[in-house]
Design brief:
9 helices; globular
């Protein structure tokens, strides 16, 4: 792993066309949801240069589409719900190509026993969000419908979210890891926040599905992210870059580290591509 400010001189990245896979929160926008003009300009320039820029995010589809629009991507693909959904966008039309659904009931029951006061929400196979209590988040992209916990158990899910206001992130992480959840893929966020997907479903699995469709060589892929749910993506990519504020385990999974999101780390990477 190397600390970097520019990548244009790296031979692995001097490609005529690349598949550029970008996390959103903490990478494209800061944790207040703000996208700097420098990042916007650099991303738009990379899109105009003909690279395949792919948003790859834990956000759901409705919350990712405005980011694509802001980056000037009117024809392209998006991997959302941590790899659970792959969609194609063309002139405002959105086509869901694939949804990876699973039965969340066993995991939900185990979590409920350990964290009965937490808030639970799931994205079902129709793209709707259901929650056991009032629980909204910008990453959902839609309003949630409050239902009984038992109704959550009866739904197939693309994504399950668990949020606790009674635990620190560390306490929450220990509680979740102590459950030994099986048959699902999960990642703990910066706060007491848990994302659950189908077994083996990650941003990397969604991007690999897309790479096969687009017929890119894996060596011609670049990924940038900052969260624990980005680790598999950074390891998968031909070249993985961690943001400067990322946890150490995320940095360790990357080939290089750029500046933090508030110092336009992504723009530095993209500008390096443009100069290459």
């Amino acid at each position: 792993m190397t600390v970097m400010t520019k990548i244009g001189n790296d031979d692995r990245l001097n490609k005529q066309k690349m598949m550029i896979c970008l996390d959103v929160d903490g990478t494209i926008v800061n944790h207040q949801g703000h996208m700097s003009q420098r990042v916007r300009n650099a991303a738009r320039a990379v899109v105009e240069q003909g690279h395949e820029v792919v948003i790859s995010t834990g956000r759901s589809l409705g919350a990712a589409l405005p980011v694509m629009e802001d980056l000037g991507i009117d024809h392209g693909y998006v991997v959302v719900s941590n790899g659970g959904v792959l969609a194609k966008v063309s002139d405002g039309d959105v086509e869901v190509i694939h949804r990876e659904v699973f039965d969340p009931s066993i995991a939900l029951k185990a979590l409920w026993k350990q964290l009965p006061k937490a808030k639970y929400a799931l994205e079902n196979e129709r793209g709707e969000f259901l929650s056991n209590q009032t629980f909204g988040d910008a990453s959902f992209g839609v309003e949630t419908r409050v239902v009984d916990f038992e109704e959550l158990l009866g739904n197939k899910a693309v994504r399950v979210v668990v949020f606790s206001t009674d635990n620190t992130a560390e306490e929450f992480g220990h509680a979740v890891q102590g459950l030994g959840l099986s048959g699902v893929t999960y990642s703990v966020g910066w706060t007491a926040w848990l994302d659950i997907a189908a077994d083996g479903t990650t941003k990397a699995s969604g991007l690999e599905r897309l790479r096969a469709i687009l017929k890119f060589d894996l060596a011609d892929s670049l990924a940038v992210g900052d969260g624990r749910n980005d680790i598999e993506m950074l390891q998968w990519a031909g070249y993985g870059v961690a943001m400067g504020q990322a946890p150490d385990e995320v940095k360790d999974a990357a080939d290089a580290v750029t500046e933090g999101v508030d110092d336009d780390g992504l723009a530095i990477i993209l500008e390096g591509l443009l100069q290459g």
